[in-house]
Amino acid sequence: SNDDVPDAAREQLTPAAQGLGGRGLRIVEVVYECAEDDWLSPDDEEQRRGSGLLFADPQGRTVVLTVRSLCDGSSFLGDTFGGPEIKSEAIRVVVAGIGVFRAGRTWIDPAGGELALLVVEDAPPDLAMTPTADFEFDADPSLAVDFATSATEHTNVLGAVLPSLDSARGGVLVRDGRALGLIGRDADDATRPARMALSALPAELRPKP
């Protein structure tokens, strides 16, 4: 992204633990910061941290599948007079043991859903990616019994109650080592977590079969 970078985003970030969750899932940390232009008071600044799945798209780009409520301030910041005016934002992808990379949004669900796709800038050509076989794009995410974030993984713990958004936004819903969905915000209550199916990602943006 060529957007201005908030000063806070220039601070050195500490890489999280190695990608977790199954045989080959490459789960990375996503760090988002933005500043909203506020005419009546000091500008509002927001930082969010969460997770996403690293893979190579059909164009050979290094991308991260995550949720919009983690990486797009216009979708979660409110404004009394209408939509928020984001004057600056920065997205960083933290790959454990490798480094911190600037990223930008390349796709958000046009139907208003939670999925979003980031393009990682200047990624090393030999960066390990999530294998195509470890995605289940047509699976029901309610079938997942495990979940993993960029820092932790939990097995046989998912029931009716999901972990909080603050602790697991963008976390990967896992069954038998494969990704079935992501943890995002509920469509009717933005404070509640919900299971996001991967099927909304267009076929032309998915890893090659």
List the helices and strands and how they pair.
Elements: E1 27-36, E2 44-56, E3 62-67, H1 68-71, E4 86-95, E5 99-108, E6 115-120, E7 146-148, E8 153-154, H2 165-168, E9 172-175, E10 178-185, E11 193-197
Keywords:
11 strands; five-stranded antiparallel β-sheet; mainly beta; 209 residues; 37% strand; 2 helices; single chain; six-stranded antiparallel β-barrel
Task: Explain what the structure shows.
The chain has helices spanning 68-71, 165-168, and strands at residues 27-36, 44-56, 62-67, 86-95, 99-108, 115-120, 146-148, 153-154, 172-175, 178-185, 193-197. The longest helix is centred in the N-terminal third of the chain and has 4 residues, at 68-71. The radius of gyration is 16 Å and the shape is globular. The model is unreliable at 1-22 (pLDDT under 50). It is mainly beta and 209 residues long. The chain is built from two helices and eleven strands, in the order βββαβββββαβββ. 4% of the residues lie in helices and 37% in strands. The two termini are 29 Å apart.
